[in-house]
Amino acid sequence: MAYICLVLSGAALLINGLTLLGRVPGRDSGVFNVLIGGVQLVLCTAVAVTADGSLPVLLSVAGTFLFGLTYLYVGLDALAGLGSTGLGWFCGLVAAIAVVFAVTNVTADPVLAVLWATWAGLWTLFFLLLALGRDIGRYTAWALVLASQTTTTVPALLGLAGRWPAGPAWTAGAALVAVVVFVGAAVLSRRSGRRVLPAAAQPQVVAPTAAA
């Protein structure tokens, strides 16, 4: 289930990044986020109901619940014009929890720990953009686009193939990807120039990944 949710999140990240860049209409992105968030919440609920109280299983779907709620919030915000400030503060909470997941996975699964740290960075950008109103929309957009496949789709496909990345080399590679995401976003945002986006498009920045 986690790998399927990661694939869905990769698509959501990409669409939301392109929306922030003005390449995808906000309403289209809103509908997509509602679908992705809804599917993830249904999958997580099914796993939780059949977990028979197993704390490890419930912990494994907790992050996906948070991401699914984020996507659903983003979609409803875009479609109904709810306002993005509350969404931004929610993303701040998710970012803090993602840090906890990163720390708790350092020993058990270092690659996943790096991925969680990267997602924490993404959600921190959403918090700064939506809750605090920082002028980082274009930077956030490029970070979403760069992270969309490298931190979700590729690891998910490897997992589905029974080859989830593990070991020092993969951990170093994941750390390098994180650097490329945030440094590359800075380079691309400067090269592409500054652009003022409609307020209605701003909530689409949030769409990051499902938890593994």
TrEMBL record:
<dbReference type="InterPro" id="IPR038523">
    <property type="entry name" value="AmiSUreI_transpt_sf"/>
</dbReference>
<feature type="transmembrane region" description="Helical">
    <location>
        <begin position="6"/>
        <end position="24"/>
    </location>
</feature>
<feature type="transmembrane region" description="Helical">
    <location>
        <begin position="139"/>
        <end position="161"/>
    </location>
</feature>
<feature type="transmembrane region" description="Helical">
    <location>
        <begin position="31"/>
        <end position="51"/>
    </location>
</feature>
<protein>
    <submittedName>
        <fullName>AmiS/UreI transporter</fullName>
    </submittedName>
</protein>
<feature type="transmembrane region" description="Helical">
    <location>
        <begin position="86"/>
        <end position="107"/>
    </location>
</feature>
<keyword id="KW-0812">Transmembrane</keyword>
<keyword id="KW-1133">Transmembrane helix</keyword>
<feature type="transmembrane region" description="Helical">
    <location>
        <begin position="113"/>
        <end position="132"/>
    </location>
</feature>
<dbReference type="InterPro" id="IPR003211">
    <property type="entry name" value="AmiSUreI_transpt"/>
</dbReference>
<feature type="transmembrane region" description="Helical">
    <location>
        <begin position="167"/>
        <end position="188"/>
    </location>
</feature>
<keyword id="KW-1003">Cell membrane</keyword>
<keyword id="KW-0813">Transport</keyword>
<comment type="similarity">
    <text>Belongs to the AmiS/UreI family.</text>
</comment>
<feature type="transmembrane region" description="Helical">
    <location>
        <begin position="57"/>
        <end position="74"/>
    </location>
</feature>
<keyword id="KW-0472">Membrane</keyword>
<dbReference type="Pfam" id="PF02293">
    <property type="entry name" value="AmiS_UreI"/>
</dbReference>
